[in-house]
Design brief:
Radius of gyration: 23 Å
CATH class of the largest domain: Alpha Beta
Shape: elongated
Order of helices and strands: HEHEHEHEEEHEHEHEEHHHEH
CATH topology of the largest domain: D-Maltodextrin-Binding Protein, domain 2
CATH architecture of the largest domain: 3-Layer(aba) Sandwich
Structural class: alpha/beta
CATH superfamily of the largest domain: Periplasmic binding protein-like II
Number of helices: 11
Largest sheet: 6 strands, mixed
Number of domains: 2
Length: 293
């Protein structure tokens, strides 16, 4: 009798697992648009898009039964408009894009790329007399690109939180990719950027010594944003299927050279269950820094 009960329990468990697997890999074309359309705010041109997301698109179709059709959009404004007017279904964006798009229309998060080292830091040469952000008053400071979450928005918030007026108390140079060279060459007194910028600084100046004078908390991850007008059954099915097959999707996503460098080498992972509340810190950063979205 005991063996019979064990056998029945085992059979039931196997049945439940099989049912879960079928549901997780079901054909979603009965609840979702097919093809489902996706854009990336950081990539222009169909060739680069296909290079970056080709394997992910294949896994997406194999797992969901939906073709993932990639769209090339020139900037985040175009991506936001495309979401608002149902021209695309998904957009791979950043934290700033999410709060901007949410202000303009109904959106939700499918999943986010979580980066445990994603945050902002300020760097100075080791022999500098600058010990804190307050010491940057009257100094020249290099930041990254205008609108960069970790290279502009959050460093600006950190400066404001330290009591500095961005227009009056220091000279900010929006240096973009030249920010590393600006610090190494002594063109600026300090540089604000991503936490991992220290690796680029050390690579450019292997004989030099640099230190961090301020570092932010970890910032929310880069979200894949869904248009809110997708059917609720579709949004639920997409979330359930991607989460149930997260390992396969992650391997497909980082299998390309571009994504491996952007995500894997920065110790990233897929995160589920993210909501608008997780991005409140980004809204606060824009407000504190006096920067319009």
């Amino acid at each position: 009798m005991r063996k019979t009960l064990i056998a029945l329990a085992t059979t039931a468990a196997a049945s439940m697992l099989a049912t879960t697997s079928v549901q997780a890999n079901d054909d979603l074309s009965n609840v979702c648009p097919n093809p489902i359309r996706m854009a990336d705010t950081g990539i222009e041109g169909m060739g680069p898009l296909e290079d970056a997301f080709g394997p992910f698109a294949e896994t997406f179709e194999e797992t969901t039964g939906l073709e993932l059709e990639m769209f090339s959009l020139s900037n985040r404004t175009a991506a936001g408009n495309a979401l608002q007017y149902d021209d695309v279904d998904l957009v791979f964006g950043g934290p700033s894009e999410f709060v901007l798009f949410e202000r303009e229309g109904d959106i939700e998060i499918l999943f986010a790329i979580e980066r445990p080292h994603y945050g902002s830091s300020f760097f100075v040469p080791d022999d500098s007399d600058i010990e804190s952000l307050e010491d940057l008053e009257g100094k020249r400071v290099a930041l990254k690109d205008t609108g960069s979450t970790s290279g502009h928005i959050f460093p600006s918030k950190m400066l404001v939180d330290a009591g500095l007026d961005l227009d009056r108390d220091l000279e900010i140079i929006m240096a973009g990719d030249a920010r590393i060279a600006a610090l190494v060459n002594g063109d600026v007194d300090a540089m604000g950027g991503g936490n991992r910028d220290i690796e680029e600084i050390e690579a450019m100046d292997p004989e030099g010594d640099y230190r961090v004078i301020a570092e932010s908390d970890v910032l929310p991850g880069d979200p894949v944003i869904m248009r809110g007008s997708l059917a609720e059954e579709c949004k639920t099915a997409l979330r359930d299927t991607l989460e149930a097959n997260a390992d396969e999707f992650w391997e497909a996503l980082i299998s390309t050279e571009r994504n491996e460098d952007k995500f894997l080498n920065r110790d990233s992972s897929m995160g589920f269950g993210r909501t608008s509340e997780d991005y409140e810190v980004i809204r606060e950063a824009y407000e504190a820094a006096g920067i319009d979205l």
